[in-house]
Amino acid sequence: MSQKNGEGAPVAQEKINTDIVTLTRFLTEEQSKHKEATGDFTLLCHALQFSFKSIAYYIRRASLINLSGLAGSSNSTGDDQKKLDVIGNDIFVAAMRTSGKCRLLVSEEEEKCLVFDENPKARYAVVCDPIDGSSNLDAGVSVGTIFGIFRLAEGSQGKQEELLLPGSELVASGFTMYGASAQLVITMKGGNVNGFTMDNALGEFILTHPDMKMPKSRAIYSVNEGNSLYWQEEVKEYFNSLKYPIEKSGKPYSARYIGSMVADAYRTLLYGGIFAYPADKKSPKGKLRILYECAPMAMVFENAGGQAVNSRMERMLTVVPEHIHDRSGIFMGSYDEVQKVIDVHKKHGH
Ligand code: AHM
Ligand code: MG
């Protein structure tokens, strides 16, 4: 085919990647590295993948409904947002139940742990926040799903108490961010962090960010400063030290706070810096949930070369929740940035 003015290059000259690593291919290749693998974990991940795709699809559709809502439709925007929270949870629950590989499921949207008795031989437990940051949905801000996977102990009775585990027991964790495109970040215990981008035309997550490593330091902090009245002195001192550097040559840090953990975490992972939601005098246990928000994120950040600690400066992955919806303060980010918070706390005898 000859190229006419303004018609672009002929197909034969386009650079087409014919050897794409999809999430499905990635999981198959990972499985083949483990001779003992039965394929159960891979099947569970396929079910997870389906729930991410579905949630991404419904979030995009909901935005359209909102647009028509603004133009005078009888649908109240608030109602639709609430429905989307429920839809996200229902999609997740159905995907996990029907995977046949999930015995226990903890969701932020469910008061009790769901026990799938129909899968008594299933060896995995999943913890998740199906749509984190949902208070932002109205404004079209990126929200996401946070997830973690535990392998149940031999002889498990399928009881929710079995999930009061530290994040160091997670076999895999990650999150998706439903933004301009859907991004998926996943890591396995002791492994690399890999980032995938949803190709809507192919309907596949494509490996676009292999072996993600976060910058060792970066002058960006991300925290809800509206809570500073309630912060402990150490926390105030730490953030002040970022804003008012002692050295004359020192530049103050930039502030970036979206208020949607997945979006703040994804930016921090890519650009570096620190994300924090400290425990304070008003919320002595912090806001974010240990099992399905803090621990999965901590594993991603550590495996990408960063650090994550709670408000007592304990390694986040060692924190054991007292109940499935237990909360914790968290500081996570670039290695050197988190070290600065730890050092300020040490000075105060923590
Ligand atoms: P949610 O699980 O009810 O959506 O709340 C969690 C969200 C996080 O995404 C975010 O980091 C935080 O709450 C923001 O809280 P705040 O509005 O207090 O700054
Ligand atoms: Mg949440």
Automatic annotation (TrEMBL):
Stretches that traverse the bilayer: none
Domain of life: Eukaryota
GO biological process, any: fructose 1,6-bisphosphate metabolic process
Domain Fructose-1-6-bisphosphatase class 1 C-terminal stretches: 214-345
Reactions catalysed according to its record: beta-D-fructose 1,6-bisphosphate + H2O = beta-D-fructose 6-phosphate + phosphate
Swiss-Prot/TrEMBL cofactor(s): Mg(2+)
Key word NAD present: no
Fructose-1-6-bisphosphatase class I N-terminal domain mapped to chain residues: 22-210
InterPro entries xrefs: FBPase_C_dom, FBPase_class-1, FBPase_N, FBPtase, Fructose_bisphosphatase_AS
Involved pathway(s): Carbohydrate biosynthesis
Keywords: Carbohydrate metabolism, Hydrolase, Magnesium, Metal-binding
Broadest EC class assigned to this enzyme: hydrolase
Cited Pfam families: FBPase (PF00316), FBPase_C (PF18913)
GO MF entries: fructose 1,6-bisphosphate 1-phosphatase activity; metal ion binding
EC number assigned by the record: 3.1.3.11
Key word Hydrolase present: yes
CC per GO annotation: cytosol
Family assignment from sequence similarity: Belongs to the FBPase class 1 family.
Quaternary structure (record): Homotetramer.
Name of the protein in its database record: Fructose-1,6-bisphosphatase
Lineage per the UniProt record: Eukaryota, Fungi, Dikarya, Ascomycota, Pezizomycotina
